[in-house]
Amino acid sequence: MRQRIAGMAVGLLLASAGGAEAASWAWGCQGQLSAPDQTAIFTRYQLVVLEGKRPPIAPTKLIDDSALKPLIGDDVPGYDPDNVNDGLAKSIVFTRDAPAKSRITLTEQSSRRLSHTAKLVCGRDEVTDTFRKVYRYVRDNEPPRTLTMTCIEYTLSTRGGRKGCD
User: Fold this and answer.
1) Domain residue limits, the chain
2) What pTM, to 2 d.p., does this model score?
């Protein structure tokens, strides 16, 4: 009987809830490797290492899920993170499951916040942080290298019962 009452209560709460909006969490980094010159860029869902120096991508474009898709092709393989929900963790592992398996591990050596903005957007909290991070970059059996990156982390919360812009 208690389960039935609890089930009806949950059903009423769900039925009375307004339009649900999902929260958003995204991040991305870009930096230059030396010897040989390479550009490393990663987002929550992918990492690419491009040959040669490239002009930087605007940090706000790195939070788009499809930011790296135009860069990935037959000659530029993409690496997938082992866990997309780790955020900008102290250690991030990316794996390529192509016929020639490969792994890149980034281990944070230092981090400094460059900027922080927080604002209320239609009843939702929007927070954007930018960082300068130094990683130890290890690719398969290559010697470790130092990689300095500019990173962005973006969150947009749910309304959490607050009034929106409706």
Assistant:
1) 22-156
2) 0.77
